[in-house]
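Notes, p. 3: input format for complexes.
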Amino acid sequence: MSVTITEGFLDHKVFSIVSDCADRMGVRAFVIGGYVRDCFLGRPCKDVDIVVEGSGIELALCVAKAVHAKVSVYKNFGTAMLRYKDLEVEFVGARKESYHRDSRKPIVEDGTLEDDQLRRDFTINAMAFSLCKEDYGALVDPFGGIRDLAAGIIRTPLDPDTTYSDDPLRMLRAIRFATTLSTPQRHFTIVEESLDSIRRQLGRLSILSKERIAEEFNKILLCSKPSPAFVLMEELGMLHVFLPDLAQLKGVETQEGKGHKENFSHTMMVLDNVCALEEEAGVGPNLWLRWAALLHDIGKPRTKKFEPGTGWTFHGHEYIGAKMVPHIFASLKLPLNEKMKYVRKLVLLHLRPIALVTDEVTDSAVRRLLFDAGSDIDDLMLLCHADITSKNPRKVERLHENFKRVEQKMALVEEKDRIRNFKNPITGDYIMEVFGIPPSREIALIKDAVKEAILEGEIPNEWDAARELMLRKAAEMGLKPIGPDASC
Ligand code: ATP
Ligand code: MG
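Output follows (488 residues plus adenosine-5'-triphosphate):
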């Protein structure tokens, strides 16, 4: 028996246009996958996948003509894509797939809707709405996706050993969907049979490309509470494959009856805190701030020491952690540009604000932090607030208060000195011009002296004072101005 959808899921004009085109071409077309799932979950979804028992490209061309849209055709994949109003609609011919053991790339043949549903990853992702005239809006759900959706269950349509072995990316997708689809009202879990299969198939992960792994990590990190994905990956032994340094944070060592903080669960809390604080502040989601949260204590295992009398220490873990960031980014083929540098900077600086909490803190220490963090200071402070994970509510409150005091001090210093986006008023070009010298060590020394004097508060962050200091320093080095500056 078919269930007909009446909730307005197919109200968008594009669906009736696709239906008309398919009818004229004499082919059956369906909406399939994420859009159907998200309709039932009440999640906004702007990506529509249309599967057609025939040529996806031809149907796309017909629809594009009807709505005067531009269509992108991917001949090699047999797919086509067009934008219509707020939707991105992708068309593909129904296919039957079989796999070689050493590749995620299937051997593809034309197939029916049923063949196409069988190659899908999860029952909740295999549901389709019919766009055929005779049963427009009927839900085609051969594997009980709607039941699994209601129960919050991630299950494969085929034997999980087949589904996961054919394409091991699905193991990571299972974890991603279990995490990103979960809400406080409905928790998603992966069925035990699937988890057992994943444990058996871990060896298959080696054929995944780093880019696809990173893409899944990024999607996980962008959800409102990412930690369950990493906890599950750790439990299943996947994290050791993808991000061994993060897996190393797990566990507590004890000596002389003293244990240290469990750094993995702490990191998980910090990550979720960052997401919650972003939401509270109405900012983000900032993917790279979330990476910084994930990696902020990554240097701890390498710096861990037990010092008799003192206990466990992790001295310098921020420096070691910052050094590890580019290697971790490279290992996942994440960008090595300013995004990586931002993460590295936050990891490096994440302990600095706490050092400013004391009453005697000098303006120059505040100025230096503002200088080092630059325009990322607000993100750094958000990370610091998120890093407070004590179980003692009084301590938590006190630490947040301390950070607020630091933020007030920063606001005062900033108002006075405008260090936040500090640019040395004296540039190398200017020094060369005034003294008629070629690029040389002296230039760096003069620039550095000016920057240091401003940060130390010896001179104000102003042009005249900076220029005067430049002339004095240069004179000490035996440099004389030339041209119009010669009289200075
Ligand atoms: P989202 O777009 O939120 O990531 P989605 O379910 O739409 O979720 P897509 O990657 O856009 O995921 O894929 C669209 C559909 O294609 C899925 O719903 C699923 O049916 C199918 N699919 C995607 N990737 C795979 C895969 N690796 N194995 C099997 N089916 C897949
Ligand atoms: Mg999608």
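Residues 393-417 form the longest helix (25 residues).
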